[in-house]
Amino acid sequence: xxxxxxxxxxxxxxxxxxxxxxxxxxxxxxxxxxxxxxxxxxxxxxxxxxxxxxxxxxxxxxxxxxxxxxxxxxxxxxxxxxxxxxxxxxxxxxxxxxxxxxxxxxxxxxxxxxxxxxxxxxxxxxxxxxxxxxxxxxxxxxxxxxxxxxxxxxxxxxxxxxxxx
Length: 165
Description:
Blueprint: E1 6-7, H1 9-14, E2 18-24, H2 29-32, E3 41-50, E4 56-69, E5 76-90, E6 106-110, E7 115-116, H3 117-128, H4 160-164
Parallel strand pairs: 5-6
Antiparallel strand pairs: 1-7, 2-3, 3-4, 4-5
C-alpha cells in the first residue's frame, strides 16, 4: 500500500480503536499476481476489542470485487469477496495452539508492537480467494482469436491440397 499503517496491536485493541479505509488493489503486490487485472478497490475495517476474559483481539472486515481469471475461458470473472475474521492476540513467545481446534472465524496471532495492517489485509484477502475462479457453467465468453482470419489454419487444411490432384 502507498501509505503503510503500523499499529501496536495490543494498545489498539485495549483502546478499542478502529481503522476504516478503501485501498486500491494495485497497491497490494502479492495479490496482483493472482488477479486478471489490478482494477478496483477494497474496503476494510479493523476494530480492536478486549473480551470479558481480558483477551485482546482484532476484528477485520473486508469487502472487495476482484477480477480473477476464469479457468474455463481464461477471461475476466468478477469475484465478490466478503470476509470477517477475528484475531486473538497472543503474547510473543507463547504458543499459538493448534489451528484445527480454533473456531473457523477466530485465529490466534502473536501480538505485535508494529503490526503492518497492509500485510494483515493482503494475507487475509489471499486466503479468502477461491482456489479456482470461473463463470457459472454456460456463461463463459467464446475465446477470442488473435490475428487475421486468413492466417487461421484449420488442422486438416493442408490435406485439401491432396484432394485437388
